[in-house]
Structure formats: C-alpha cells, structure tokens
Design brief:
Layout (H helix, E strand, L loop, with lengths): L5 E6 L9 H9 L2 E8 L11 H20 L5 E4 L2 H12 L3 E5 L4 H16 L3 E5 L21 H11 L37 H6 L4 H13 L5 H4 L12 H5 L5 H13 L8 H22 L22 H8 L6 H13 L4 H14 L4 H11 L5 H12 L14 H8 L4 H6 L8 H4 L7 H6 L15 H13 L9
Parallel strand pairs: 1-2, 1-4, 2-3, 4-5
Helix pairs in contact: 5-11, 11-16, 13-14, 14-16, 15-16
EC number: 4.1.99.3
Family: Belongs to the DNA photolyase family. Belongs to the DNA photolyase class-1 family.
Organism: Ectothiorhodosinus mongolicus
Length: 488
C-alpha cells in the first residue's frame, strides 16, 4: 500500500458502515478513504426516486454522516452529473482508486458500466462489489442454465448453494478527510417535502443503520415467533418492516440472514423453525425480484408475460384512480390500506395485494398506474420489488397469480382483520359499525348505519364499483388473452 494512496468510496443505496464491501476494500488498500455521495436522481429516469423515498434518503444520509463523523471521517456530498462529479473529485483529491457496491436497475447498470470503462481508460482503478444480495443474478439458474421464472425452484437452488460468508464488521476508525475538500450541505439537496405531509412518516420510522438493526433484533425476539401466520394480519405488528432499511442499504440481506442463523445457534429458534424459514423465504422473494429485474430489464414498463401486451386495458377513469389513491373507494380494507400508505409511507403486504387486485382487475386500470403511485408514496419503493409485486397481482409477471384470482376485499378484510382493528384505525368514520358490517357497510340496515352515525355518500363514500359485476367483467377480459402457460 502506498503511503499516499487515496480511494473514493462512492455510496449509493449502501448507507451503512458494517458489511460494506466497497468501504472495507478501500480501507485495506488505501491510506486515505473518502466517502462520497452524489445526488443525481435524473440519471435513474424514468424511475427517479419518489417523494417518500427522498424523505427517507435525507434522514438516512444524515444518520450516515453522523456515524462517519464518530469514526473520524465525514461524508462528501455533491450534486449534478455523476461522471462530472467523480472526475472533479478524483482531480481534487488525487485519488487513483474508486470503489462502489453494485446496483441492479437497468438505467443505473448502463451508467455505471460507462463510468467504469471511462475511468479505467484513464488508469483509475475501479472495482464494484456485491452488498445488496445474497446471490448475484448470474449465479442462480434453472437446470437449462436460464434465469428462473418460478420462485420455488429458484429459492431451492439458492438454499442448496448456501450462504458461505459472514457480514463484514464495522470499522473501528476511519481516516480523516481533508477539511479543505468541499461538500454541499445535506439540506441543499432539497429532499424534504415543501408541504407538511411527512409528520406521520417521522413518527413511524427510525431511519438509519442503528434503527435497522434495532428493528431486526426486535423482530427476531418478538414477531418472528408467530411470523408464518401473523405476517398476513395487517391488524397485528407481525412483520419485520425491514423493507426500507434493506432498500437503502442500512442493513444487508447477509446481515439479516446471519442474525437469523445466530438466533438458531443461541437456541432462540430450532433449526427447522417454520416461522424463521418462512421469513428467510421472504428475503428470498426479494432476491427473486432482483434477479428478474436484472435478466428482464424491460419489466418495469412491460409485462414479463407477453400475452398481456394485447390486454384491452380501457381508458383510465381519473376519478376512480383518484378515489383509489386517496382511500375513498368505499371499500373499507382498501381505503384503510391506502390511508396507511399516505400517513406512514408503508403498507402491509397482504393489503398491497388486495389494493393492487382491486385496481388492476376490478377497476381494470393499468398496473403501471398503481406502480407509479406506490413509487411516489412508499418509503420502501424499490424497482425490483415494486415491479414484481404489481406484475404478480396483475397476473402478467413471473410466478404470477392466475388471471382468475381476483381478491375479494370483503372476504380478505373479514379473514385478516377479524376484529376490524385495522379498518377502525385508518377509517375511523365507520368505526362504530359492528364487526359483521364493518367490511361491507353498504349491506348494513339503515338503523345500524344511523346508530353508528354513518351517512353513506356523505360521511363515507358509497362503493365506487360493484365487486361482483367488476369481477365478471375482469374474468371476461382476462380470459380473452389466456393460453396454456409456457413452461420455464
């Protein structure tokens, strides 16, 4: 190692110090290591980060900056064209090495490949690492050597291959960064909303690496003990809520996997515990989504199942779309979910499927409209997961729900919110209804509505659709394109 060697570590969605391969490698080969964040959302078009993601990013960068300062370093923030910012930083610092952790979105892959080639042509050492996945997309294939399009064989192959590495530790100290090296203030990025809508987000999350690990340990010690059943209940705190932490790289899937294995080794869980194994399979679904995005980069805009390219989507009714977005459909479980999303930046996975089914099947509004709304309002908006989730529900993705599976929101609400706790929390205007009418207030007799102080159409909307009629209409439309599925 040269005593004067300097390396830049380009941080993106790996906003943590522990288990950060690019950072660790830089520390092993360079005397001076400079952590850099470059804000260039336009380079991710057409899927630039949405408003909720930008809110999270602001607080995550702030937490990382504080963590770096505690170890003797600091975060250098720049904004603009990434290639130009990197060129400038290399010139200002005399750095001859650049390291980053890989991302997998199509636009980002293209940009990163161009940067890598351009800088290598200038004799800059450039290297990228895997920090976001247990398995790289090119490491898992089916028996024919092709990308897997069905989850179960994909995850079986992953489990058979096994995870044979441990997370990297947090550095004990970091080299100081030249105080003359300029960094723009975090506030100058303008990530926070100009309208005061984020109060609920702030009260719902502890953003940053520490918050991610506290959430994981709390989940392992608590909700994971009943995860296989309770994960379907939006009225219970039965999930890990790690998704935004994973998206921004405040924690890695390797750290999550390692913590689960440590819980087994410490006797907190049997090795074949069904709740733990089911949770790990959900981490597997995240992996699967990333593998699909990598191998099928057209899917954020186009159906993986090409039969759906000829689906006769009707013209979108803007009033119906707006009612869905704002939680004013008159279908209680749907409205509860959409309001939870607006208030907290998150939505329980069970009701994500319910609201997506209502939009793409009952209302026959293109799934991309829903994907774009989620993209702007979810703090865990992740191109791989968002694309896979919407295409699964719409029936046009890998391992997708069959076209004839149309979630009945009334039955879903009665099954997974049996005491109505979730609906009453987010749709308080109908909280006075008895349980047997809470999920379907339009069936309640006039005297029941009066006793609950509900005036349908005024205090709470009439349903914007007939669930039975729209189901039949959807079945007819979807059956027009159905063919025997293609084996994969």
């Amino acid at each position: 190692m040269s005593s004067s060697s300097t390396a830049l570590v380009w941080l993106r969605r790996d906003l943590r110090l522990a288990d950060n391969p690019a950072l660790q490698h830089a520390l092993s080969v360079a005397e001076t290591v400079i952590p850099v964040y470059i804000h260039a959302p336009h380079e991710e078009a057409p899927w630039e980060p949405g408003a909720a993601s930008l809110w999270w990013l602001h607080h995550s960068l702030g937490a990382l900056s504080n963590d770096l300062q505690r170890l003797g370093s600091r975060l250098i923030i720049r904004s603009g064209s990434t290639p130009e910012c990197l060129e400038s930083l290399l010139a200002e610092t005399g750095a001859t090495q650049l390291y980053w952790n890989r991302l997998y979105e199509p636009a980002v892959i293209k940009r990163d490949q161009q940067i890598k080639q351009q800088l290598r042509d200038q004799s800059i050492e450039v290297q990228s690492f895997n920090s976001a996945l247990l398995f790289e997309p090119w490491e898992i294939t089916n028996k024919a050597g092709q990308p897997c399009k069905v989850f179960t064989p994909f995850w079986k192959t992953c489990c058979a291959q096994g995870v044979h590495r441990l997370p990297l530790p947090t550095p004990e100290t970091l080299p100081a960064v030249d105080p003359e090296l300029t960094s723009i203030p975090l506030a100058a990025l303008g990530l926070l909303p100009t309208l005061d809508w984020d109060t609920g987000l702030a009260s719902s999350w502890q953003v940053g690496e520490q918050g991610a690990h506290e959430a994981l340990e709390s989940f392992i010690d608590g909700a994971m003990h009943a995860y296989k059943e309770d994960r379907n209940r939006p009225d219970l705190a039965g999930t890990s809520k790690l998704s935004p932490h994973l998206h921004f790289g405040e924690i890695s899937p390797l750290q999550v996997h390692s913590a689960c294995m440590r819980a087994v080794a410490e006797g907190r869980y049997p090795g074949e515990d069904r709740h733990l194994l089911h949770f790990l399979s959900e981490i597997g679904w995240r992996e699967f989504s990333y593998h699909l995005l990598y191998h099928f980069p057209q899917t954020p805009e186009s159906p993986l199942d090409t039969r759906f390219e000829r689906f006769p989507w009707p013209k979108t009714d803007p009033e119906q779309l707006r009612a869905w977005q704002k939680g004013q459909t008159g279908i209680p479980i749907v409205d509860a979910a959409m309001r939870e999303l607006w208030h907290t930046g998150w939505m329980h996975n069970r009701v994500r499927m319910v609201v997506a089914s209502l939009l793409s099947k009952n209302l026959q509004i293109h799934w991309l409209e829903g994907a774009r709304w989620f993209w702007d309002t979810l703090v865990d908006a992740d191109l791989a997961n968002n694309t896979q989730g919407w295409q699964w529900t719409a029936g046009c993705g890998a391992d997708a729900a069959p076209y004839f599976r149309i979630f009945n929101p009334v039955l879903q609400g009665e099954r997974f919110d049996p005491q109505g706790k979730y609906v009453r929390q987010w749709v308080p205007e109908i909280a006075g209804l008895p349980d047997n009418y809470l999920q379907k207030p339009w069936e309640a007799p006039a005297e029941v509505l009066a006793a609950a102080k509900i005036n349908l159409g005024r205090t709470y909307p009439h349903p914007i659709l007939d669930l039975g009629e729209t189901r039949q209409s959807a079945l007819q439309a979807f059956s027009a394109i159905k063919q025997p599925p293609v084996a994969s």
